[in-house]
Amino acid sequence: TYVWEEWPLLIGDGLLSSSAINVPGRPTEVSCAHTNRLAVAYKQVTSKNSHLSQDFVMHVSIFECESTGGSSWVLEQTLHLDEIGTMLDSAVSIDSNLVAYNRQDISLSPGGNTMPSVKRLIHLDWMSREDGSHILTVGI
User: Fold this and answer.
1) Residue 119's closest CA among 140, 91, 89?
2) What is the pLDDT of residues 52-108, one digit of tens each?
3) Fewer CB within a 10 Å sphere, N or C end of the chain?
């Protein structure tokens, strides 16, 4: 289990700056390539009048702080994923934490009860390259 903590960034002359990162939605997944680069997957509701869990769009934003000497996070790129909820099979339901439950792919619990398959809807991971750079992979 990881706990996200804000730490102070030095901006010069001993002044402190916030290390907070803001995204326009609900963060669902965070992955770090290293201490200076991270990706945040977040969910945005597509309609304010909708209470359906499937009415949302996903974005993945990549932030870096190398270009500022570690003094502040800079948005490098945002990947706009299509409306994932509308592309899902009818047997798949998603809760508010973006956990996908597949009613067709079931397993037996130790007590003999049937349970739907449970998976995270979005998975972020970084791959290291030989030259020291990193490639972000987004699994849906």
Assistant:
1) 140
2) 555 678 899 999 988 877 777 899 999 998 766 555 656 566 665 556 655 555 555
3) N
Long-range contacts, 34-38 (Cβ 8 Å, 24+): 34/134, 36/64, 36/65, 36/66, 36/70, 37/62, 37/63, 37/64, 37/65, 37/66, 37/76, 37/134, 38/62, 38/63
Cβ neighbors of 25 (< 8 A, separation 6 or more) are 42, 43, 44, 45, 59
Cα 8 from chain centre: 23
The percentage of the chain sitting over the pLDDT mark of 90, rounded to a whole number, equals 25
Q: Is residue 17 scored above 60 in pLDDT?
A: yes
The candidate with the shortest Cα–Cα distance to 117, out of 126, 107, 127, is: 107
The distance from CA 106 to its chain's CA centroid, rounded to whole angstroms, is 26
